[in-house]
Specification:
Elements: H1 6-13, H2 19-22, H3 35-44, H4 48-55
Length: about 60
């Protein structure tokens, strides 16, 4: 089994943060989305049943 290094994982997927840290990592002028903002996004993407597919990248 090959183990991927932290640097490789970070380069592929970005950083993972706990909730408290995530609240403070956005650049100036940006914000961490609220639950209500996620709900609006999901609704605009067609609702829960199709939003996941609509958010997926169409290329690799």
């Amino acid at each position: 089994m090959q183990v991927m290094g932290v640097g490789l994982i970070t380069n592929m997927y970005g950083y993972l943060y706990n909730w408290n840290t995530a609240q403070n990592v956005c650049p100036d002028g940006w914000h961490f989305p609220s639950n209500s903002e996620w709900v609006v996004l999901i609704e605009q993407l067609g609702g829960k049943s199709v939003a996941v597919e609509n958010m997926k990248a169409s290329t690799t």
